[in-house]
Amino acid sequence: MALLESGEMYLEAIYVLSLKSSAVRGIDVGDYLGYSKPSVSRALGVLKDEGLVRRDDDGFIKLTKAGEIMAKRIYERHTVLTKVLLDLGVDEETASEDACRVEHYISDTTFEAIKAYIRKHG
Question: What's the CA dihedral at 66, 34, 57, 15 to 10 degrees?
Fold first, then answer.
């Protein structure tokens, strides 16, 4: 399933927030991403329709199994690419911002090659 960059950003945000707390709310996602409540609500509706998120009995946002798989993949790309850029001497803020841009467009083939290179030379 192909997800737009914005959808991937929401999944990653929910995943990162869920690592810190099991009680993730829409407002938390909005604060994390800097998005308005209506934008978050609309995006969460799309992700719910795609079967990637759900709300639990208390109204907290949870990733489904499919959503968690996608979110972990996106988060791994972000962390690996950030580390590569930091190792190249890019400052932390720029490395994180650039990794965020690249993580949504890099092919699986290229990303796996980067990971293999790191394992071999890292």
Answer: 30
